[in-house]
Design a protein that fits this description.
Strand content: 25-35%
Number of domains: 1
CATH architecture: Alpha-Beta Complex
Order of helices and strands: HEEEEEEEHEH
Largest sheet: 5 strands, antiparallel
Mean pLDDT: 94
Bound molecules: nickel (II) ion
Oligomer: single chain
Number of helices: 3
Number of strands: 8
Helix content: 10-25%
Amino acid sequence: MAIREVLKMGDPRLLAVAEPVLEFGTPELESLLADMRDTMRDLNGAGLAAPQIGVGLRVVIFGFDQNPRYPEADPVPFTVLINPTLTPLGEEQDEGWEGCLSVPGMRGLVPRYRNLRYTGFDALGSPIDRTVKDFHARVVQHEVDHLDGILYPRRIRDLTQFGFNDALFPGETLIDD
Ligand code: NI
């Protein structure tokens, strides 16, 4: 287990489409997941995708009880999600502030589907099938975007709503990503 370096926007590895995991329950997968957990917790991330630590596999983790970077968000159960498929439920989207460990110190207002069904597999290959909404749905959409080489700034509709944490939210003690 180790805290790994998180790649920053501009690194071409963040733009690649990740490959599906073919084998579950392997020591390699367990070791990747342990590193992802350590790295995410060290940085107070709400989630992390394998490509962010330079591994081009369709693996994301997310979840938190109380995240100091998103103090108003409801808790999201800690989840390992592999080879995910997302299905938006309805057309309704919400705009919400997002940050990313690969875009440190910044926030942007990003539209995401409010209601979402997601499926995939856990570390041992057991199926996951959930219907979620609001911040849980947002986090999953953000993380799965990483698997397709998309960082949240590309989703921002109005670039006046993109900037540095301390300028956007002066006086707020957002823990920097
Ligand atoms: Ni991110």
